[in-house]
Amino acid sequence: MATDEGRVAPPGLKELAHVLADARVALDLANDAAKEAQATFDGIEAKLFDALEGAGLTSIRTERGLFRLNDLAWAAVEDEDKARAWAEENEPALLTLNRQRLSVIVRRVITGDEAAPGLEPGVMPPGVNFRTSRKISWRRS
User: Fold this and answer.
1) Is 0.85 surpassed by the pTM of this model?
2) What is the span of the domain harbouring residue 109?
3) Domain annotation covers residue 91
4) Angle made by CA atoms 77, 83, 88, in degrees to the nearest 5
5) Are residues 46 and 99 in the same domain?
6) How many domains, the chain?
7) 106 and 135 both lie in a single domain
8) Residue 86 class from Cβ within 10 Å (0-12 exposed, 13-18 middle, 19+ buried)?
9) Which region, left, alpha or beta, applies to residue 127 given φ > 0 means left and ψ of -120 to 50 means alpha?
10) Are 87 and 125 in contact (CB under 8 A)?
11) Could you read off the pLDDT of 95-138 as tens digits, one per residue?
12) CA distance 45 to 137
């Protein structure tokens, strides 16, 4: 078996390369299966989320554990310059645009708990929008 520059590979190297190839094929198959399982899980999770929300519930306890809605919003800065200008004037602590702190402000605006500093209630800071994460948390029994 030839290798770089015509040298002969040590014994067992070809077999090891084949073992790696087999492991890669197995990994690719497992990743494909995991993607399918994730898509199935996401669909069922969305159905349960909608059903709980439609029933006016935030959680349900079964013999398998507690299933609770986890509906969060995260800041999505769409215009860095506008968001930074607003932060400089109203929230100097956000000058580095701390996304975690900004997300807290966004959640408060969405829920109507309080207005963003310097803005009317219900108004997002300039250059900022949000994305949501609708998940079900499951605490097993």
Assistant:
1) no
2) 69-140
3) yes
4) 145
5) no
6) 2
7) yes
8) buried
9) left
10) yes
11) 766 788 889 999 999 989 899 999 999 999 999 999 888 877 78
12) 10
Phi-psi region of 97 (alpha: psi -120 to 50; beta: other; left: phi over 0): left
Residue at 62 is within a domain: no
Does residue 136 sit in the same domain as residue 75?
yes
Tens-place pLDDT, residues 36-65: 999 999 999 999 999 999 999 999 999 999
The token duo for 40 is 């199935």
63 vs 14, more confident? 63
Beta partners for residue 137, in sequence order: 68
Helix or strand or coil: residue 33? helix
Q: Is residue 25 situated within a structural domain?
A: yes
- As given in the structure block, the two tokens for residue 53 are 């929300």
* Pairs from 92-95 (Cβ < 8 Å, separation ≥ 24): none
Asked if residue 105 belongs to a domain, the reply is yes
Which residue do the tokens 């077999």 mark?
Answer: 15
